[in-house]
Amino acid sequence: MSSLLQSWRWYGSNDPVSLQDVKQAGATGIVSALHHIPHGEVWPLADIQQRKSEIEAAGLTWAVVESVPVHEAIKTRNADCEKYLDNYRQSLRNLAACGLTTVCYNFMPVLDWTRTNIALELWNGAKALYFNWADLAVFDMFILKREGAERDYAEEVVAKAKERYAAFSAEDLKALSDIILMGVPTEGSITVEQLLASIEIYKSIGHEGLRQNLTYFLSSIMDVCEETGINMTIHPDDPPYAILGLPRVASSKEDLLYIIEQVDRAPNGICFCTGSLGAGSHNNPVDILKAVGHRVYFAHLRNVLKDAEGNFYESDHLTGDVDMYGVMKELIAINSKREQPIPFRPDHGHQMLDDLQKVTNPGYSAIGRLRGLAELRGLEMGIARSVASKD
Ligand code: DNO
Q1: What is the pLDDT of residue 114?
Q2: CA 228, CA 223: separation in Å to the nearest integer?
Q3: What is the per-residue pLDDT across 296-315, written as a single tens digit (0 to 9) for each?
Q4: What's the pLDDT score for residue 186?
Q5: Among residues 106, 260, 319, 369, which one has the fewest Cβ atoms lying within 10 Å of its Cβ?
Q6: What residues does 65 pair with on adjacent strands?
């Protein structure tokens, strides 16, 4: 039985974590994207080929493209939608021509993943990414000044946000705002004005409209996927609930089932992200994996620890609210029926040891992820061996 494909996200030659570091960490598959191409533009063959050669020259393989971003014109299905769908299909063809057939994307409006603190100090001095409702409410109510924002939060959260706002300095507020607006670090952030304008647009689209736009996007690319052998994998919403008045459509088991059933074709798949799903108290990742596993072509493995208010930080990979043993056991079972091993990457890691002296993309430190990968790899081997010995 072949094992899962141990992978690692690499941002390209600007990534402070080098391909040699990746090799020492023990991964063989690379997860990468052309972050320098503006969202929505066609990915040129030459650029794809160059990235691929760089990866292969280091003795590694480019296993997953994460992500080919879906332009806002497609998410909102505005007048430019068809043009961007053409571009998307062309990027897929170009990727397939270079032998790349697993593609990740997300359908989160405007913002990608959202945190309120990227350096929460843990008991052992390591630093983790953190999401706090009261801090989000400070941003929403006092920086964004979104109409009706207060109504979207629990009373206690609003009270805390008011207290915090009164105590925050101008620098604190700027730091919070920068973190929330950051998105994918290498792709630039957006402004408060742009965010407010988008919130207005999504108000009229709503949850149902966004679902339809996603269905339309998928239906429009499936022929190309089937022709070229590409599998698409949608990344769940992170965190898995509506924030800042923006709808979310990939936040739960029901959402994921809806997506795969609505466009019921094999290339319409899922990137199973345990940390994103696990941050919602409505989600049980093992149960979700059992329901959608047949369409999982890529996995992000990390853990989270939530408190009573729903705030969460990214915990060690094996300990937290996600039953990583249960997830790994199920992934191994699914993988054993596959011809191609499922790639997984240790998703995020703490800043620890020498990481603390370095600047890396938030969540993508070398040693923190190395620890995560080592633990996950050990867990996989232990489970795979014990399953095999029972056969
Ligand atoms: C964060 C990542 C996300 C992910 C995209 C996929 O660390 O997991 O930015 O790459 O949402 O499109």
Answers
A1: 95
A2: 9
A3: 999 999 999 999 999 999 99
A4: 64
A5: 319
A6: 32, 103
10, 51 in Cβ contact below 8 A?
no
Q: Which of 379, 352, 345 is nearest to 25 (CA)?
A: 345
Residue 171 lies in a domain: no
Out of 35, 71, 300, 317, the active site residue is: 300
Whether 289 is in a domain gets the answer yes
273 is catalytic: yes
Whether 268 is covered by a domain: the verdict is yes
User: CATH code at 71?
Assistant: 3.20.20.150
Instruction: Please check the confidence at residue 277 and state whether its pLDDT lies above 90.
Output: yes
Note the pLDDT of residue 1: 62
Is the per-residue pLDDT at 32 higher than 80? yes
Query: Angle, nearest 10°, between helix axes 81-97 and 45-57?
Result: 40
Number of domains, the chain: 1
Q: Is 184 in the pocket of ligand 1 (CB under 6 A)?
A: yes
**Pocket lining: 66 vs ligand 1, CB cutoff 6 Å:** yes
Q: pLDDT digit string (tens) for 47-62?
A: 999 999 999 999 999 9
Residue 317 a catalytic site member? no
Task: Retrieve residue 336's tokens.
Answer: 């054993």
> What is the residue-averaged pLDDT of the chain?
96
Domain containing residue 375: 5-113+209-390
Q: Which of 66, 348, 364 to mutate to test the pocket of ligand 1 (most atoms within 8 A of CB)?
A: 66
282 is an active site residue: no
Ligand 1 atom with the smallest distance to the CA of 363 is: 7
Q: Is residue 327 part of a domain?
A: yes
Q: pTM of the predicted model, to two decimals?
A: 0.97
**Confidence (pLDDT) at 390:** 80
Q: Which of 368, 366, 362 is nearest to 349 (CA)?
A: 368
